Amino acid sequence: MKIYTLHKKQNLPISVETAWEFLSSPANLKTITPDYMGFNILSGSDRPMFPGQIIQYIVTPVLGIKTKWVTEITHVKDYEYFVDEQRFGPYSLWHHKHFIKEIEGGVEMEDIIDYKVPMGILGQMVHPFLVKPKLEEIFNYRTKKLEELFGKY
What we know:
By secondary structure, the chain is α+β, with helices and mostly antiparallel strands. It has 2 helices and 7 strands, in the order E-H-E-E-E-E-E-E-H. The protein has a 7-stranded antiparallel beta sheet.
């Protein structure tokens, strides 16, 4: 059982409050997701983030195949971090930690995703040329989109 980790950091010239307001709103996830992903929130984004919140999406991660993704917000410490975990979806494991901290002139945002691909050894074989590059592409898009919205640090 191979568990992979994706780790990303980004600095933005905004306040912790602005970063938190944007990132902790599930509705804003569509804004920072590439259009080709066909991201659509089905339910659960109608309230501010709280532990136990279930959010349902439809995504099209690869080959145009629509997939239902259900996440639970498991931990929240306002203005510092939150954790979402996949309950149903394309991964065997998805545990995504979002950290926000104040730095001089802005904030540092950090994402740490621990994930496991499905299909055993076959999933591990396609990971380096299909799954990992797709995740990198999605998070690189997020970096650019957040810079468009809030400016470069």
